[in-house]
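[Q] Does anyone have a clean structure-token version of this?
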Amino acid sequence: MRDLLNASSLQCVGTSATLAGSGTYDEQRAEVASVASQLFGSTVRRENVIGETLCRVTPARDFSDSAVVSELKKRVNEEDATPPRDYQGFVSSPLSIWIENTFGITTEAESGRIIRAKPRSILGPDGAAHALSALISTSMERCADVIQEALLAGYECSPNPETGFPPFAFRLHQFISRGGSVFASIEKESDRYVTLFGQQYVPGDRSRVLLPLVFCRECGQEYFCVWETLDSNDSDTPFFTPRELSDAVSDDEHERGFLYLSADHPWPNDPQAFLQRLPDDWVEEVRGVLRLRSGRREYLPQPVRVGKDGQQHADGLECHFLPGHFRFCLHCGVAYGARQTSDFAKLASVSSEGRSTATTILSLSAIRQLRNEKTLAFHARKLLSFTDNRQDASLQAGHFNDFVEVGQLRAALLRAVCDAGDSGLRQIPKASLPVNIPHKSLMMNAKHGKRTFVKPDCP
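[A] Here you go.
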């Protein structure tokens, strides 16, 4: 613009809410001035950088004064007391003053300016409830309750008569981190102890070991991801220990594999029964009789009895051990070729999701909850998503669109199949097909779940 208009004295004005870094106020202004000078191609002086000016809502009180602390303790321990709903009464409360000093503002030591306090949680060892509990010698649970009540009251009480804003217009931030693995005890599904926190035993019971679970990507059936390990004291008594899905190297003492335990869909031990559930390329027909191919025998699920302690013994639960790579699912029957050696493509853990998928699922879950939130106006039941750059925004937007379109198409197919009943769908009328969907006759059988695409009868 300066070159185009030959404007040597062009004045540039920049605004940003998050540009300033760490340090004192003067150091922040110097840093912003340096960045702005590079951005605009002209000198921006430090004194021309304007920061925010904060004002207290509550009156200043010294909480190192025992009398002030005693007043605060009395307010917190009032069991039947409710926070004031009038503006003047609320800001005069010692609890409101303490909350503003804790969550809202603090004083910069170098300049004495009022600046924003660092965000902090209510609970936890470094949380505000712990600090209040230590100050007034009251239980942390009680302190957490009164802090939450006061924050909500500050948002709901009558506004400041001069500004029209409530005294505490707070924002809550929830951070959702990706999971690791699900750990469960070796018991029937109804009796298992399940946790997301990696540990060796069920808390308080060292006789029940915890093993990580992985899940079939087709049907979701869980498997214990384990090493079959030989006991150093008794080589004839193997036991099972936790294994990461990526750990794939076996040795003389450790055999990698998966442990299958299902009360609803157990794997049969009778050869005639499990032949019907094996993949087609595992069996062959000889003189009219089905039999297992000899090259697959070593990969058959091995019946084992496993106790809650992970040891194999006669009175343990009946399980089946799948040695080596995961070759087929004992629940849904999906099978993989011998060249598909990566178990990651077949099985998933809680941490296997992609960032775009996780964001989409969390967003749609939030929207579904908002639809049922009757206390919010209809126009407020929405979600705004922020991204750091255009590339991430484009990626996420495309993922949202694809996910919604696939979900709508699947829902339409499911509804059509369910409405058709056992007779199945013979043809989808052209007029009822969505736009941009290829015109194909679809034969589906709701009873058996089989689907076949055939040549269309119409153009």
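[Q] Thanks! Anything notable?
[A] DSSP finds ten helices and 16 strands in the chain.
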